[in-house]
User: Which sequence fits this backbone?
């Protein structure tokens, strides 16, 4: 699930943008890792992303829970999520898609996702 077009540093920044925009204030670590896995499945890189997110004040770790330290940075579906028609596989669940949903962050674009997975990745479900 790692996008070969992004370098390691770019994947870290993309994952940090994703974590900063998740709409839940408090999540289990497993739910946060599920979201990070839409950017990378490399366990070392996942740990680096979590460490960097904590150092930058995006999250706070306590036991098996992750608490967001920044509020009000939710993804705006109208402007930051774009839909494209085509043949895609969802980055989260692997399902075949005819419409892909892509999230645009400053650091890059993440997707494609199906209509329900995009909501789960962003913490709206």
Assistant:
């Amino acid at each position: 699930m790692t996008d070969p077009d992004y370098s390691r540093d770019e994947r870290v920044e993309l994952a940090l943008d994703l974590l900063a925009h998740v709409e839940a204030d408090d999540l289990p670590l497993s739910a946060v890792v599920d979201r990070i896995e839409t950017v990378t499945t490399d366990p070392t890189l996942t740990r680096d992303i979590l460490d960097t997110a904590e150092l930058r004040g995006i999250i706070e770790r306590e036991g098996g829970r992750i608490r967001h330290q920044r509020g009000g940075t939710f993804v705006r579906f109208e402007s930051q999520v774009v839909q494209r028609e085509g043949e895609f596989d969802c980055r989260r669940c692997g399902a075949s898609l005819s419409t892909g949903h892509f999230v645009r962050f400053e650091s890059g674009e993440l997707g494609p996702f199906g209509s329900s997975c995009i909501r789960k990745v962003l913490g709206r479900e």
Observations:
- Residues 29 and 65 are 5 Å apart (CA to CA).
- The longest strand covers residues 96-105.
- The mean pLDDT is 89.
